[in-house]
Write a structure and sequence with these properties.
The structure holds two protein chains of two kinds.
Chain A lengths: L4 E3 L2 E4 L5 E6 L6 E7 L6 E7 L2 E5 L7 E4 L6 E5 L8 E8 L7 E2 L3 E5 L1
Parallel strand pairs in A: 2-11
Antiparallel strand pairs in A: 1-3, 3-8, 4-5, 4-9, 5-6, 7-8, 9-10, 9-11
Chain B lengths: L1 E6 L2 E5 L4 E9 L4 E7 L5 E7 L5 E3 L5 E5 L4 E6 L8 E8 L8 E2 L3 E6 L1
Parallel strand pairs in B: 2-11
Antiparallel strand pairs in B: 1-3, 3-8, 4-5, 4-9, 6-7, 7-8, 9-10, 9-11
Classes of the chains: A mainly beta, B mainly beta.
């Protein structure tokens, strides 16, 4: 169990640019979640995959956001035309189908200038 | 729909004193409840979870929480605070037990005074 890993740890970008984050879940976990956390707030649910199927998306996930998990293993979260309001910590978590315990990665801190 | 309210964005206790972090929930179905801890520059770690079994749940690092349906509360306690307990603590609720997303509270920053 190597844990959930996220890449990069930090990303600084200019407004209007596209960014992509990667999440590698724990290998035997078939469920994968993306959350966003801003300063002074708890994590907010963005989307959830079971294997390669995206089963739920939050209203927070605007059209500029897209997430994929093509082979049911790693996942990517892309933000197009970034805005300053997108600045946040993006967290990935995974779990197995038989255990509701979520394991979180350390997150990707996005700063949009 | 579900929600969580954590009372107190900051709680300060002396080392060795009782820790009490408050959490109240709202859920239209019997909830699953969780406490997570976040240390600086680290991911969230599960402290404990309530899944409709025993109402008093024991977690890691000496923490425990009691589910009180009548008060819609799930407060986190530890009898004796340690300096290493200083962190951000999040209460969370799930209606589906993990199949859907967790709804987190805003967090409580626990400060331990020497």
């Amino acid at each position: 169990d190597t844990g959930v890993s996220q890449d990069p740890r930090h990303k600084i970008t200019k407004r209007g640019q596209n960014v992509t984050f990667r999440c590698d879940p724990i290998s035997e976990h078939n469920r994968l979640y993306w959350y966003r956390q801003t300063l002074g707030q708890g994590p907010e649910f963005l989307t959830y995959f079971q294997n390669e199927a995206q089963l739920e998306k939050s209203r927070l996930l605007s059209d500029r956001f897209s997430a994929e998990r093509p082979k049911g293993s790693f996942s990517t979260l892309e933000i197009q035309r970034t805005e300053q309001g997108d600045s946040a910590m993006y967290l990935c978590a995974s779990s197995s189908q038989t255990n509701e315990k979520l394991f979180f990665g350390s997150g990707t801190q996005l700063s949009v200038l | 729909a579900q929600s969580v309210t954590q009372l107190g964005s900051h709680v300060s206790v002396s080392e060795g004193a009782l820790v009490l972090l408050r959490c109240n929930y709202s859920s239209s179905v019997p909830p699953y409840l969780f406490w997570y801890v976040q240390y600086p520059n680290q991911g969230l770690q599960l402290l404990l979870k309530y899944t409709s079994a025993a109402t008093l749940v024991k977690g890691i690092n000496g923490f425990e929480a009691e589910f009180k349906k009548s008060e819609t509360s799930f407060h986190l306690t530890k009898p004796s605070a340690h300096m290493s307990d200083a962190a951000e603590y999040f209460c969370a609720v799930s209606a589906g037990g993990g199949a859907d997303g967790l709804t987190f509270g805003k967090g409580t920053h626990l400060i331990i005074q020497p």
